[in-house]
Amino acid sequence: MTLDNIVLLIPLLPLLSFLLLGLAGKHISVRFSGVIGSVILGASLVLALITAYDYFFAIGKQGGEFIPYLTAQLNWLPFNSDLSINLGLVLDPISVMMLLVVTFVSTMVHVYSLGYMKGEERYTTYYAYLGLFTFTMLGLVLSTNIFQMYIFWELVGVSSYLLIGFYFSRPSAVAAAKKAFIVTRFADLGFLIGILMLGYGAHSYDFFTLIDRLSHPGSSYLVAMTGASFLGMSTLTWALILVFIGGAGKSAMFPFHIWLPDAMEGPTPISALIHAATMVVAGVYLVARLFPIFAVGAPDALTVVGYVGAFTALFAATIACTQTDIKKVLAYSTISQIGFMLFALGVAGWGPGKTEGFTAGMFHLFTHASFKALLFLGAGSIIHAVHSNEMKDMGGLRKSMPITHITFLLAALAISGIPPFAGFFSKEAIFSAAEQSNPIIYWVGLIAGTLTAFYIFRLYFMIFWHKTPDAHAHNHEKGEWAMMIPMMLLAVGAVFGGFIPFGDFISATGKPLELPIELSHIILPVGLGVLSIVAAAILYRKESDVPQRIVNALGGFYRAAYRKFYIDEIYLFITKKIVFKLMGRPSAWFDRNVVDGTVQKTGSLTIALSHAIKRVQSGKLQAYTMYFFGGVLLLVVLLLYKFA
Amino acid sequence: MNILSLLILIPLLTVVGILLVKSDQLIRKITLAGSALQVIFASWLTAQYVSLRHAGATAQMLFESSRVWFRPLGINYHIGVDGISLVMILLTAVVVLAGVLVSWKIEKQVKEFFFMLLLLSVGAYGFFISLNLFSMFFFLELAVIPKYLLIGIWGTGKKENNAMKLALMLMTGSALVFLGIVGLYFASGWFGGEHTWDIMKLSHMHLPMNVQVILYFLTFIGFGVFTGMFPFHTWAPDGHSSAPTAASMFLAGISMKLGGYGLLRVATYLMPDAAREYSWIFIILATIAIFYGALATLMQKDLKYMNAYSSVSHVGFVVLGVAMITKVAFAGAVLQMVSHGIMTALFFAAIGMIYDRAHTRMSNELGGVLKQMPFIGTVFIIAGLTSLGLPGFSGFVSEMTVFVGSWVHTGIFYRVATILAAASIVITAVYILRATGFAIWGTITRKEYALLKDASWNERWAAVILIVGIVLIGLAPFLFMHLINADVQEIFNHLHAG
User: Fold this and answer.
1) How confident is the model at residue B363 (pLDDT cuts 50, 70, 90)?
2) Whole-angstrom Cα distance, residue B497 to residue B484?
3) In terms of domains, do A626 and A554 share one?
4) pLDDT number for residue A352
């Protein structure tokens, strides 16, 4: 099989799984549907591994530089002779890396769900949706065209919608699904307009044509798009900021982050796959895809990316420290970590020594996928055992859930950036890049990183310690191999993922990049991380009233963070009070009463008029005689007037 | 006989067939066979057309033929098709077939019902193949009157008032169209040297600007009434709310498209200078229809009102595409006509199926449809996702084409209009997902709903046929783009030649 066919099969296999289980699901025994889905995904993972090997070690490199490999090109929607939406698949370092992340985590989640979703009423549908999501996510990752990416962007949104609303008899799930779709749709409006601007300016929607035309100083397209300015920014800067708004929506950046915590209404494996490891990093991937244009053509837009990322990283980490639902803590943690990836891209630039942030951001995306998916799957197995999301219902679980305990701990150490776990390497790279180029972002990131270690160990101690373990508790994990094995495999990634020489494979330019680790840089972030862990241990390892006293001392600030800084309330106000009350209702009223009122009035006036005229034909002879003589008289008067 | 005339003849023969038989079941079967035959014929015709084009046929219209109808007034039965009319014919054939299937269970005056439905389709087919303004108008009228009866007899609710409103407003529209084409007839004599109704001949005449302006507004507003252009759209929500399912499908699926086709083929193509000068007025009206229509949709609880208002908003894209007068925007308008035609038919079919069972269309009274009736629930969701422009379905393709076509203009006015139109897709998502959340998801609200049965065979077929259409456009838009490309280019060139 040629590489082209292999690459094509990677997304098509999950699509096949979706079609098979979705259309013929009724004819497949429930016991097998999950296995079928998992086997198909496993095949996809194997093909992705082959592709990665081929690309990184055989065909990808030319002249010491990784170059994009395009295949399966199709002129899908031709607008003009020189402008069309083309579909195709691209292999380049970031797309191949994403292929691995998506197929790996998706396979893990498929297998895990064999145990977690057992006995669900719509088990087959669940696997069909999983296949659909994986297909669309792979399509997004492999896109060669910005419109193609937008297409799959919308499609991952709808698969996410279907999966968040999987338990659709629960009103909260319905509301959460709706919210996720609409908030991201709103952000996508920016993306769409950005695409229109880019396409108009560069006469193409193909990524590599766009990059070619807009990232070389002096290119006529670039000159045209940076020449005119609107409100102080060039057309290109506007276009890229608009595109980034779409990315910020999908990646749950402030102020579009509100949908992600609610999305936890979906089954927990879905949270691990879609809302932690893959779909939510699409925004990061989008910025990375267009990185040369950002860096060369519109550095201002990149600065915006950096500040949005840094602010969100800190903001979400603060909220994560106060939440009591374990999935909500992890959701805010995800938002915060994606903030790290984006500010890493934001502090990067073009030219020697400036691109470290790019590699660092992608590295963090890579390591985060394994440890965050692991944290979610761990949370899933806890929820599966305890039947509650609330931390207060847990505590002392280390005895009854040993595997979950150990893997969770490893993932927590990884996300806290403790050496030698995966998160340490990627975070160090991020801090090192930020320190060189933007001190504000560096310090904000450092505080966020410190809070990260604190909230995750708060979670860890509250779940596994805090209370004395029940001596007679049976082992909750017995027989749940389908759930335990994926967790163990992900733990391998969380522990060793950082040792991959990431810069050798992925860099902004395609050339290898060294990610140096210097002791002087390490001490501060790691020291702060360790201190946070100690603090969390003191506060939460045993039951005490100290945390409550701290909460009381913090007063209003704690309450604000606990209520997520009232952002949801602000949104609710805008939609309910402004969109519905001030725009929707008046429009509907105006239409019924003024526009249609005019039509109805015209009708009734016509009737009234005809009633009035109808009197003339009364059938009374006297009246007709009167009209007759009246007419004669009038004529006589007129004639006299005219001729006399 | 010209092969195109079969498009009119097949439904007419079907009409004769059902008039001859007595049994209701036989009437249904004959109608179904006739409409299925028409779909096959239309597809075959398209294939023929494509192969002729491939073989190098360069004439603007293919299968052209002309017969004298009434010589003193120069009225000919002049027919011919290009890619644009062909996709409209395909649309009509598919929607009619689905409409017949959906109406299978109608018990009241079966013969009359299918008679009216077929008569409507004859009007639509004739309209799309006419190249003579007078015969075109004749067929347009043929497609109006039966609607009044369909709603008045088989409708529900305030049907008398609503049927009357619909008929009178559409009549007003056709009166304006009539004034416009009569004006064209006389203007052709005064300024072009020959009195003619012929579209092909008229397109070569260069009428003075002030004459064009008057005729442009008459025809654009006249056909605009048919498309439900703001502020002449209020027949649509009321008409739909009372219409039986198949009539709603026809009304929004095809009838509104007669207007859209007229905007392009008559108002814009024959009055090019006026279109270039004054189409901005209709850009404003279209943008209002799109945005304000979407806002008004937000507040609708009755699913039929929701889809009717949503149609006003969606057909606004057709008007917008035509008024933007760029080649890509024209293509977008044509695609949007087809896409919306199928999508809205599917939506009305799903709503009709729900209403037939639950006897309510109020989204807040329903719930749990997906659980109780998975097929119908899924159809509703697919129609909804198409409506909100999900890629993979047809709506995405056509709306994006309109946006790309509109973005060609650089002026701030055009930009604002395009952005407002694009913003409507967010509002669309809100109302679609709200309706889905309330009515389709959730749990059933009444005990008796637990007895409701899922779609029957005829309903399943109707839905599947329409979904295939939606998905075909959504996945392989290049097929349709290639079909219409040269023809929208021709209209565009014509507009910018003089």
Assistant:
1) confident
2) 20
3) no
4) 83
Query: A481 and A598 share a domain?
Result: no
Cα distance between residue A624 and residue B8, in whole Å: 52
B-contacting residues of A 597-616, CB under 8 Å?
598-600, 603
Asked if residue A129 and residue A168 are part of one domain, the reply reads yes
Q: Which of A530, A562, A594 is the last residue of a domain?
A: A562
Query: Residue A644: its pLDDT value, please?
Result: 65
Best residue in B426, B438, B471, B479 to probe A by mutation, most A CBs within 10 Å?
B426
Q: What is the pLDDT of residue B299?
A: 87
Residue B184 has pLDDT above 90, yes or no: yes
Q: What are B279-333's pLDDT values in tens digits?
A: 999 999 999 999 989 998 988 889 999 999 999 999 999 999 999 999 999 999 9
Task: Indicate whether A495 and A634 sit together in one domain.
Answer: no
SS3 letters for chain B? Answer: CCHHHHHHHHHHHHHHHHHHCCCHHHHHHHHHHHHHHHHHHHHHHHHHHHHHHHCCCCCCCEEEEEEEEEHHHCEEEEEEECHHHHHHHHHHHHHHHHHHHHHHHCCCCHHHHHHHHHHHHHHHHHHHHECEHHHHHHHHHHCCHHHHHHHHHHCCCCHHHHHHHHHHHHHHHHHHHHHHHHHHHHHHHHHHCCCCCEHHHHHCCCCCHHHHHHHHHHHHHHHHHHHCCCCCCCHHHHHHHHCCHHHHHHHHHHHHHHHHHHHHHHHHHHCHHHHHHHHHHHHHHHHHHHHHHHHHHHCCCEHHHHHHHHHHHHHHHHHHHHHCCCHHHHHHHHHHHHHHHHHHHHHHHHHHHHHHHHCCCECCCCCCHHHHCHHHHHHHHHHHHHHCCCCCCHHHHHHHHHHHHHCCCCCHHHHHHHHHHHHHHHHHHHHHHHHHHHHHCCCCCCHHHHHCCCCCHHHHHHHHHHHHHHHHHHHCHHHHHHHHHHHHHHHHHHHHHC
Q: Are residues A527 and A631 in the same domain?
A: no
Same domain for A314 and A385, yes or no, is: yes
Residues, chain A, total? Answer: 644
**pLDDT tens for each residue of B48-105:** 999 999 998 888 889 989 888 888 888 889 999 999 999 999 999 999 999 999 999 8
Residue ranges of A 562-581 with Cβ closer than 8 A to chain B: 579-580
Joined together, the tokens standing for residue A472 give: 């007679």
The predicted structure's pLDDT at residue A592? 83
CB contact under 8 A, B299 and A587: yes
- Chain A residues with CB under 8 Å of B429 CB are 181-182, 185
Residue A570 lies in a domain: no
Q: At residue A395, what are phi and psi to the nearest 5 degrees?
A: 115, 135
ipTM of the complex, rounded to two decimals: 0.91
Rounded to whole angstroms, the Cα distance separating A403 from A405 reads 5
Out of B405, B429, B485, the one facing A185 most closely (by C-beta) is: B429
Domain that holds residue A605: 580-643
Are residues A504 and A531 located together in one domain of the fold? yes
Buried b (16+ CB within 10 A) or exposed e, B406-438: bbbbeeeebbebbbbbbbbbbbbbbbbbbbbbb
In the listed set A562, A589, A611, which residue is the last one of a domain according to the structure? A562
Residue at A569 is within a domain? no
Specify the number of domains making up chain A: 2
Find out whether A338 and A494 touch, Cβ atoms under 8 Å: no
Q: Could you tell me the pTM of the whole model?
A: 0.92
What is the band of A319 on the pLDDT scale with cuts at 50, 70, 90?
Answer: very high
Residue numbers in A near B443 (CB within 8 A): 169
Residues A426 and A475 in one domain: yes
- Asked if B400 contacts A78 with a C-beta cutoff of 8 angstroms, the reply is no
Helix (H, G, I), strand (E, B) or coil at A234: strand
Q: What letter represents residue B342's amino acid?
A: I
